[in-house]
Amino acid sequence: MKLLWFVSSLEQKGGGERFVLEAVHALRAQGHDAHLACDRLAEAASFDGRYDLSRVICTARPFDLRASYARRALNKLRGAVALARVVRHLKPELVICQSEFDAIRLYLLSRVLAFRYRVFVFGQMYQFKTDITRYSTVFRRHLEAIVASRPGYRATVTMPPPKLPTLTWAINEIVSRLKYRAVRAADRVFTVSTQVPMVLGSFLGFSTMTVNATSTMLINH
Fold it and tell me: Among 48, 123, 193, 200, whose Cα sits 20 to 30 Å from the Cα of 178?
């Protein structure tokens, strides 16, 4: 099978980076025509040369956390155009991502380019302080219960939810609805944690399944 795995960032030694690099390696070992693409690439993600990054397709999209929310959203939208070029060139049978935000791009592009996509959910919506989609009207109605279910979230989630500037609020509402639709529209949704289905699946309204992070399960289910 020809498939494309997309991640926004492949710039550091981290669990997410190791996960995708190991998965793509395993897929290739099984005979799949697996490709890896990202917006940003750095040598650190090679884990001191353990992984060969020479075949990674980098769209070279910049990202500045200091930029306004509106500018960051616009940059992500432009990134969808760059990713579309990659998809048109490769014509993969399946596209995979491991972020709810990245799923938005796949959702929008799949409407035009007609490909299947699958999503790994790691629960970043509550782990990262910079993710404000949890405060949108789509997700905030369950926010208190979600935070209560995992004490560690109290360090990253502001309660009660903060009041956002009008423009940021409006863009955040659009982004949140796209995230909601993107995950629900995926061909399959996977997680490698027993916590994520309980936290996310209960209020996103989709059925997740806990699987081992193996390419066999990814392709065959």
Answer: 193
